[in-house]
Design brief:
The chain is an alpha+beta fold and 295 residues long. The protein contains four helices and 17 strands.
Length: 295
């Protein structure tokens, strides 16, 4: 770092300022209420729905607008509601949130691309949220990856959606005062298909494959993410699935667990969409301490 001789600030003060800055960055409180202005905006939106000026659709109906390898722009006054099931608190998600249609027994979920760091401070896990879709777009986040996404921009080729820009977020994404308890949707690995992308799920009798137990969640050689292999005892058959962790997750260096148990996460897909993956909100969702079914 270059120094300027004319500025005489004691070194211990500089260290203190840096420390406090880091502490502030890492100590966001989860909001329990919304501000007066936010509340007024949401109430105005709900009034528009009530008086018929805007129409509420389900997440399943929203996904019906998706056309493979095309982007659809919403020109009508339609709104969708969901519950946040992803969290960027640990850094394993970035500029995105997943909404599912119910706190328990969900049937559909949607990927929202949103230009907002530390989004968990506003759209925390379990938060009820509304998306005013007029002027937004639905398509894939990357061509062919199969992740149906809502965004605020279209790429130059016209075949992918991009994030809702930070200044546009307050015009389209609204949180209510309600935060609910989310019950993970229990599934088996062999049951997971494209209809489950974006859902918060739980899979039982899972372990990390023995060859990877004790290795870090993220391989130090990987710049972006690492896929590790999970195994599950399901109907006397061992089925496998991929666990994907971002190189920016704050638990990336932790060793993978060596036991067996229930793992919870968001169903997603690899960068190119070739495989399904499970993405965790935190390492706490992979506490595997039991005994493998074959032992």
């Amino acid at each position: 770092m270059n120094t300027i001789k004319h500025i005489k600030i004691p070194l211990f003060l500089l260290i203190t300022f840096a420390y406090l800055g880091c502490q502030q960055e890492d100590s966001f409180d989860i909001p329990k209420e919304v501000g007066t202005e936010e509340n007024e905006q949401l109430n105005a939106l709900l009034d528009e729905i009530e008086n018929g000026n805007k129409a509420m659709i389900t997440i399943a109906q929203l996904k019906d607008y998706f056309v493979y390898r095309r982007v659809h722009t919403f020109t009508s006054d339609v709104v969708v509601k969901g519950y946040v099931v992803s969290s960027d608190r640990t850094g394993n998600f970035y500029n995105e949130i997943y909404l599912q249609d119910a706190p328990e027994n969900p049937t559909a979920a949607i990927h929202i691309m949103i230009e907002q760091a530390a989004s968990y401070t506003m759209f925390n896990f379990g938060r009820e949220a509304y998306i005013d879709l007029k002027g937004l777009h639905i398509g894939e986040s990357r061509v062919g990856n199969g992740i149906i996404s809502v965004g605020g921009e279209i790429n130059t080729d016209g075949d992918e959606v991009e994030s809702i820009r930070r200044l546009a977020v307050p015009d389209h994404v609204f949180r209510s005062k309600t935060t609910v308890e989310i019950t993970p949707h229990t599934l088996k690995f062999l049951e997971i298909d494209k209809s489950h992308v974006g859902l918060f799920v739980a899979v039982e009798n899972v372990r990390v494959t023995p060859l990877e137990q004790g290795k870090p969640f993220v391989d130090p050689k990987d710049y972006y993410d690492t896929q590790r292999t999970l195994e599950a005892c399901e109907d006397d058959i061992t089925n496998t699935f991929l666990l994907e962790t971002s190189a920016f997750a704050n638990y990336k260096d932790l060793p993978l667990p060596s036991g067996t148990g229930t793992i919870k996460g968001i169903v997603s897909k690899t960068y190119n969409g070739s495989d399904f993956v499970l993405t965790l909100n935190s390492a706490e969702d992979a506490k595997l301490t039991g005994v493998w079914c074959g032992d």
